[in-house]
Design goal:
The protein has 3 helices and no strands. The chain has helices at 3-14, 18-48, 56-75. 3% of the residues are buried.
């Protein structure tokens, strides 16, 4: 169960204060996505540092494969 689903379930049973739980779950979910995206960008920038123009395409292709592998691995959970 994701944080957002948990927040919705908690909000449905918590009464008037449930709104804040749902809001918190949504903010935390979006915050986690932002952190993962920033880390991915930072890793690619570090990988590209010191790489010649002819090798950049290979580095970017490898980074894209890693991102695809991580995304497809999470769908199976």
């Amino acid at each position: 169960m994701s944080a957002l689903e948990w927040g919705i379930a908690a909000g449905a049973t918590a009464g008037p204060d449930g709104f804040w739980l749902v809001l918190l779950a949504g903010v935390l979910s979006i915050g986690g996505l932002v952190v993962v995206a920033l880390v991915a960008v930072r890793v690619v920038r570090l990988a590209l540092d010191g790489v010649g123009p002819g090798e950049r395409a290979a580095v970017l292709r490898a980074a894209a494969e890693v991102v695809r592998a991580v995304r497809s691995g999470r769908r199976g959970r």
